[in-house]
Prior knowledge:
Two copies of one chain form a homodimer. Chain A is an all-alpha fold.
Amino acid sequence: MEADRRTRLTPDERRAQLVALGVSYLVDHPLESLTIEYLSAQAGVSRGLLFHYFGSKKGLHGEVARTARDSMLNATAPSPELAPLDRLRDTLTRIVQFVRDHRGTFYSLVRGAASGDAEVREALEQARAVQAERVIAVFRELGAADSELLRIALRSWVAFAEEALVEGALKTDLPSEQIVAFLERSALAVAASVGTGPGATFA
Amino acid sequence: MEADRRTRLTPDERRAQLVALGVSYLVDHPLESLTIEYLSAQAGVSRGLLFHYFGSKKGLHGEVARTARDSMLNATAPSPELAPLDRLRDTLTRIVQFVRDHRGTFYSLVRGAASGDAEVREALEQARAVQAERVIAVFRELGAADSELLRIALRSWVAFAEEALVEGALKTDLPSEQIVAFLERSALAVAASVGTGPGATFA
DNA sequence: ATTCGCTATTGACGGAAAGTCAATAGCAAA
DNA sequence: TTTGCTATTGACTTTCCGTCAATAGCGAAT
């Protein structure tokens, strides 16, 4: 009874299987601690195979990070048919939902992943850039000028939101609506604070 | 000519020497890449000695991170004699100054250090907690209620400020005054956004 | 059914770096 | 000088990354 003769999959299948295992690992471990040794054992394949598919440990980490990132970006993609402020609120609502549905994954992504190798950092960097772009779009449609300071401000607001989500959505049980409302107000406040005077508001 | 007979220092001296070397390493490398091998070679001592003093690589990283953190916290300690808003502006001014004077160290601290082991993360966590506490004190003196949401808000604002400092103070050459002014306005805006209504301002 | 060819997969090898620990050797006091 | 304490060493073990020629599934051809 050889329950484990060598199983030969197509490259796409194998890749998908390995990456999926990697992403599920994020649920309760930091990415950086994901070892080639461990993942190959989990998948029941040799270590050599992982090097064949991902080239290196960094390569593996990169692909896992990008996959987790994309699933988050997809789950929180804005609805283009909504008016700017409605779209913002809708997106924020879905983000809070996602964070609470995938606690471990989100945490590993914005915390653990901020670490180690360039490839992983790059992946997270892009996620922030996308989120920032989404918010910038909202305010541009509301008539804000596209200054460099605005971009820095909203990019930083994304970092703000990540921290608030970890602290508020993961570590406390504040009602989701309250977190959404807070994030919404803070985004408006930050955008308004870009203008020199105490003038410009968007609500 | 034995330029290097075994030199015997007091534990405090040796410790200080090793940690100082570690901190200086941060100027142009991420902490996580600091290896026992390398540091022992730099210091001209055996690897075993580092394990004697720090127990493990994580232990070493932790001590380096805490030392760098403390030098930042000291350099930006608020002046108690100033009125709340003046103190806030003064602290922000000193932070921007510090960031631009110690580019590499600051970057390694808030970025690279956000990574790896629990001990390092913990050190940075405490730095954020201290900075948040300083800002909370300002707004409490201005009459803000000490709600949980306010704490989350200002804690998140610290993350916001870190991001803005990296993007604005390190990656661009915006005048310091402008960055300080922006940080100041954003802090006020965030604090104000905690109150449910569009009311409460502090300026 | 059997053979063949392509390639997915393996396992043995080499190397870097973390930890462990009993042995060694400065240095200050007797 | 000698002695005792302890700072310091260096050899050893372990873990994990990365390389590469050899092996063995599996579909296609006969």
